[in-house]
Amino acid sequence: MAVLPLLLCLLPLAPGSSSSQPATPSLCPRRCRCQTQSLPLSVLCPGAGLLFVPPSLDRRAAELRLADNFIAAVRRRDLANMTGLLHLSLSRNTIRHVAAGAFADLRALRALHLDGNRLTSLGEGQLRGLVNLRHLILSNNQLAALAAGALDDCAETLEDLDLSYNNLEQLPWEALGRLGNVNTLGLDHNLLASVPAGAFSRLHKLARLDMTSNRLTTIPPDPLFSRLPLLARPRGSPASALVLAFGGNPLHCNCELVWLRRLAREDDLEACASPPALGGRYFWAVGEEEFVCEPPVVTHRSPPLAVPAGRPAALRCRAVGDPEPRVRWVSPQGRLLGNSSRARAFPNGTLELLATEPGDGGVFTCIAANAAGEATAAVELTVGPPPPPQLANSTSCDPPRDGDPDALTPPSAASASASASASAKVADAGPPSDRGVQVTEHGATAALVQWPDQRPIPGIRMYQIQYNSSADDILVYRMIPADSRSFLLTDLASGRTYDLCVLAVYEDSATGLTATRPVGCTHFSTEPALRPCGAPHAPFLGGTMIIALGGVIVASVLVFIFVLLMRYKVHGSQPPGKAKTSAPVSSVCSQTNGALGPSPAPSAPEPAGPRGHTVVQLDCEPWGPSHEPTGP
Fold first, then answer.
1. Strands of 313-322's sheet, edge to edge?
2. Residues 113 and 214 in one domain
3. From the CB of residue 299, how many other CB atoms can be counted at a distance below 10 Å?
4. Between 228 and 149, where is the model more confident?
5. 318: domain CATH number?
6. Residue that is last in its domain, among 495, 525, 555
7. 252 touches 277 (CB < 8 A)
8. In total, how many domains does the chain have?
9. Euclidean distance between CA atoms 536 and 268, whole angstroms
């Protein structure tokens, strides 16, 4: 009879029986709720106090909700093999790090919520594999950097991108321009100060663009904005009209924003921050005729310059206007100048010619332009012959040199020897990658140091120049920006030999620490101090006056000493006697060296003695009540 229940258990159940159960029950993490009765499977763990992604997840799940926990990182193995996952929520955790490839197996994922975490950057490999992603929510993080290739895998499928409430100052605008299917783009509450022209021109399906509460002073017109409703159209008439939100920005209301003023708006968040006449006024209440610009006016330009060939020259041009003018330079030959191997153009309107040539002379034209017009100014540059070479074997005097003592000349052949002191101090850092450091020009107190490009060294932060002279063992250091290839030393002493080394300061990718690598060393000498020809070797009149005054002073001292000696002799020949005073007095005594000083009063009167043996008492003159000497 005991065998009958066992046999009944082994019999197959009849088809359609309501007691059927899945053959393999699924696992559900502790503190989570799992819906496993029917597909798709869901794992719900909101507010469960989780510190990490549960390892016992059912890999067949289509929905995983892990919001409102304390998860600090998403590791590569946390979501491995979850190929059927469609929705993943990691909102409002403490995630600081997402491993590269952490979502690589989620090829079916449609929505990823990472909002409310502590992400500071998003690299190119962290969203790899999300080829079907539609919604990406990254708001309320601490994002300060977004890699250009971070959205490459989902660029063709993404429909909703939310980057609001972060710390973004710059964006990969070229990468955003490839999001051809995006409908909603949230860039509000960031630190964006500018938007390049045409940044949204390829986003043909964009329906809402939110740039509220950034640092935008102007918004350039874009072909995309042609879908915005104008004032002449009935509000809300076009169904496909773009919704543009840009309130809370410090808008500069000039002629560059006239196109925006012509749009139909229904909100009242926008206001002008400048110019002062319009500051604080409601954007849509300012009349279109008040959005004006001011043409540029050149306020400063360099006077005519004259430099010898081979020397640098700096041409300056300043202009004001609204908006701020952009300054460009045109050469005497009519060519537009920019950054090159011989010239550098700076945003502040300065044009620097690194080494002038005789053909560079002429009239340079400064052009200042903005949206309201342009203004021009001429700056004349004269390039003279190079300075004459220094005379050799000159013993009488040195030839005069144009300019100041910092003028530079090509180095002599004697400066090609190996460095000594400074190079020895950096020898322990390893062999130099390129010993191309040269002092191409040097003068009495200045030298121009140049070194080759060090692009093979990754992560260069700056360059360091260290040098010392033959008369001083103390090293002098100079920190140079990473994009520099030359530096002018102007604190050298004339007539000295210097040892100089250049080091590259970079971040070691293996250790993450700052390291240095020698670029090269050199050895050079500064020119001796120059003395104009014909100058006297010594100032005759000044020297004669000094000697004469010194002789007078010495003679006066000798006469004074002789008078004192004679006085001592006269007092020593007088007969002895006593001095009597009616009240205590203090005496001033004459010493043999001619100095005067107070003499302390004795505590008791001393007995009278021979005058010849009490010179100090005889020479004392009373300073107090009068008295007369008495006889013996």
1. 294-301, 313-322, 350-353, 343-345
2. no
3. 13
4. 149
5. 2.60.40.10
6. 525
7. no
8. 4
9. 83
The most confident of 317-326, 383-392, 475-484, 565-574, by mean pLDDT: 317-326
CATH number of the domain within which 227 lies: 3.80.10.10
Q: Which residue has the tokens 């749009």?
A: 263
Rounded CA gap, 305 and 338, in Å?
20
Task: Pick the last residue of a domain from 146, 162, 178.
Answer: 162
Residue partners of 456: CB distance under 8 A and separation at least 6 = 433
Q: If we measure between CA atoms, which residue out of 157, 205, 200 comes closest to residue 184?
A: 205
| 182 shares its domain with 266 | yes
Contacts of 353 (CB under 8 A, 6+ apart): 312, 313, 314, 315, 342, 343, 360, 381
- For 12-38, write each residue's pLDDT tens digit: 443 333 333 443 456 788 889 988 776
d(CA 524, CA 212): 60
Mean pLDDT of the chain: 76
Give the Cβ contact number of residue 258 at 10 Å.
Answer: 17
Distance CA 514, CA 508 (A): 6
Q: Are residues 153 and 189 in the same domain?
A: no
**Please, what is the end-to-end C-alpha distance for the chain in angstroms?**
164
Question: Rounded to the nearest 5°, which phi and psi values hold at 109?
Answer: -65, 135
Paired tokens of 407: 């003028």
CA–chain centroid gap for 66, Å, is: 41
Burial 479-516 (b: 16+ CB within 10 A, else e): ebeeeeeebebeebeeebbbbbbbbbbbeeeeeeeebe
CB 386 within 8 A of CB 310: yes
pLDDT single digits (tens) 474-502: 778 888 888 888 888 888 888 888 888 88
Cα 481 versus chain centre, distance? 9
Average pLDDT over residues 154-177: 95
Host domain of residue 80: 38-162
**Identity of the residue numbered 146:** L
Is residue 557 in a domain? no
> Does one domain contain both 172 and 284?
yes
- For residues 145 and 199, state if they share a domain: no
> Rounded to 5, what percent of the chain is helix, strand, coil?
15, 25, 60
- Give the count of alpha carbons within 13 A of 601, CB side only: 11
Specify the length of the chain in residues.
Answer: 632
Residue 119 has pLDDT above 50, yes or no: yes
* Nearest partner of 224 among 212, 239, 240, 235, judged by Cα: 240
Question: 380 forms bridges with which residues in the sheet?
Answer: 363
Q: Round to whole Å and give the CA distance between 338 and 328.
A: 8
Structure-block tokens of residue 19? 């007691």
Prediction pTM value:
0.56
Q: Concatenated DSSP letters for 116-154?
A: SS---EE-SSTTTT-TT--EEE--SS---EE-TTTTSTT
Q: Is 613 left (phi over 0), alpha (psi -120 to 50) or beta?
A: alpha
The verdict on 224 and 323 lying in the same domain is no
Same domain for 138 and 63? yes
Of 122, 220, 135, the residue nearest 175 (C-alpha) = 122
Counting beta carbons within 10 angstroms of the beta carbon of residue 30, is it exposed (0 to 12), middle (13 to 18) or buried (19 or more)? exposed
